Each structure stands twice: as C-alpha cells, then as structure tokens.
Amino acid sequence: MEMYFDMDLSLSEIGEELHISRQGAYDMLKRASHSLESYEQRLHLLARYDAVRDKIDEVERLLDREEPQTLERAKQLLHEIEL
C-alpha cells in the first residue's frame, strides 16, 4: 500500500518491483485494503482520531480567548484526550 499511495507507483510498477504481475499487485492491494477496513470496523481508530482532533481544535479555540473558565475547559479536554 505504501508503494501505491505514498510513492505513487502504478500497479505495473509495483508488480515489476515485487516481481509479480500487475494483477497480483492489484489483488495484494485489494486484500490489504480489505484488511485495513476490517481492522477499522473493529478498532474504530479513525473515529477516535477524529474525536481527538476535534478536542484539540476546541482547546486551540479556547486558548485564543481570554475568559477565566477557558483554562479549566482546556484542561478538561486535554484530560479527555489522555484517556
């Protein structure tokens, strides 16, 4: 998957690099993609990441303000992120 997404290689180029056919590279990519989707369904990592990112964004917005309760809310959000 790294070769396809990060290195932007075509299926033919991946096949050449790994000494397999283009179809073999395609099948390997599909199996890896299916495995990742299966893990995501069980682990919910993307949802957790999105929730953490939202809390970080809120902390940043709060810290831009100068209200007394701002620091307390920021601390609370950071504590939630740690869990």
Task: Kindly describe this structure.
With 83 residues, the chain is an all-alpha fold. The protein folds into 2 domains: 2-43; 46-82, no CATH class. Helix content is 84%, strand content 0%. The protein has 5 helices and no strands. The protein has helices spanning 2-6, 11-18, 22-43, 45-64, 68-82. The longest helix has 22 residues, at 22-43. It starts with a helix and ends with a helix.
Please summarize what this structure is.
The protein has helices at residues 2-6, 11-18, 22-43, 45-64, 68-82. With 83 residues, it is an all-alpha fold.
Question: Notable features of this structure?
Answer:
single chain, 83 residues, mainly alpha, 2 domains, 5 helices, 84% helix, 0% strand
SSE map:
Layout (H helix, E strand, L loop, with lengths): L1 H5 L4 H8 L3 H22 L1 H20 L3 H15 L1
Helix pairs in contact: 2-3, 4-5
Q: In angstroms, what separates the terminal alpha carbons?
A: 31 Å
- Uncertain regions spanning at least 5 consecutive residues: none
Largest sheet entry:
none
Rg is 21 Å
Number of strands: 0
Envelope shape: elongated
Count of individual helical segments: 5
